[in-house]
Design a protein that fits this description.
183 residues; mainly alpha; 79% helix; 0% strand; globular
Length: 183
Amino acid sequence: MSNPVEVAGERSDRPFWIVNGVVSVVALAVLAYLLLLRRGSGDPSALSFMPAVNASFNALAAVLLVLAVRAIKNRDVARHQMLMLAAFASSTFFLVGYLAYHYVHGDSKYPGTGPMRIGYLLLLASHVILSIPVVPMCLAAFYFAFRRRFATHKRITKILFPIWLYVSVTGVLVFVMLRSAIP
């Protein structure tokens, strides 16, 4: 049986879903433009430190996500909330840094060959495909948590957590593989 509080709130969720859709589509469009169309400009050494910083933000987000899940399993709601906000902030800083770096440099090509290249491209493909739902799902998870609609929040996060964690960890692996292949 449906929770009456959850069902009653569905109509008032329309503005959120519109904003969530617009934010998600704009983020995806900007990313697609930077990676597929824009060739980069400016000094190649500009922002050369950003990939390592971005990988650090991804690693931090992964650790914070695991700690946040552990906190909620221990019924420490306050710690869970703090850790989730920190994980979201870390992922947001990653995204801003990633966009800034690729605005200047365009797409990064993997210079390796053979099985390592195939492994890199498969990892990158899974990372990119699974990263697409992270922004809208994060926004939805936060929205329903703030609205105190925890049944919906929990349904979303059961799917979101492994995806977000995978994307964060593979972001670090993509960085390591790319950097180790550069002579």
